[in-house]
Design goal:
By secondary structure, the chain is an alpha+beta fold. The protein has two domains: 3-99 and 222-241, Glutaredoxin; 116-218, Glutathione S-transferase Yfyf (Class Pi), Chain A, domain 2 (Up-down Bundle). Helix content is 54%, strand content 8%. The chain has helices spanning 3-14, 31-43, 59-64, 84-94, 116-143, 149-167, 180-195, 197-201, 206-216, 219-224, 231-234; strands at residues 23-26, 46-51, 72-74, 80-81, 238-241.
Amino acid sequence: MTMNEGFNKKRNKNNQGAKLLPILYSLRNCPYAMRARMAIFKSNQTVLLRDLVLSNKPEEMMQVSPKGTVPVLVLEDGTVIEESLDVMLWALHESDPKGLLHCQQRSQSASTEESFLSEMLKLINDFDNEFKTRLEQYKCAKRYQEDNIVECRGACQQYLQQLEQRLSKHAFLMSDKESLADIALLPFIRQFARVERQWYLQSPYPRVRLWLNNYLQSPMFSKVMAKHPLWLDSQQEVFFSGC
């Protein structure tokens, strides 16, 4: 018996009489888990949400994803998706009622061969691989009261300037319509805004502030950030969806 077969046998036993659903292992305040939950919410998919803390990881999760980070999505057939962007793409490829993937749409600035999705993925990749590193340095500079905090903030600002410029042209990051890029970047811009709150509120990025604030005050964000009992403590199955 393979690891996934053993996992599914145990899961079937625990869910007898119920429809088998994907399982999402998640951490409430992790930005990667946050954006995975947002995509699932937007897609109207339903998953079993298992909240955890990284100091006490479920054995079931470690069996299927030894890397031990969240999010981890286990599909009905035992397929494991371990990266947040892959979880988002899975959810929206399954169902995209809000059109976040902008199917059939082309960017005016892209070549005829490059799809709108490709442009979105490039923007997300830039923030995941460049901005996130600079954001962590900025957070550390603030936490440890280092004397290079202005320099670290400035390294982040070039990315905020890009977003401000985009938002000067349309309501969302890619167009006047919400997209995958908006919810993928949102958790990291939220983190940036919390490092030096007073500076951020007076910073030269009013459109970014409005964009972020609209999300933070939305019913979607309240649902995505709702606190649930830790699964290891309660063994309570939480049904999470945007329905």
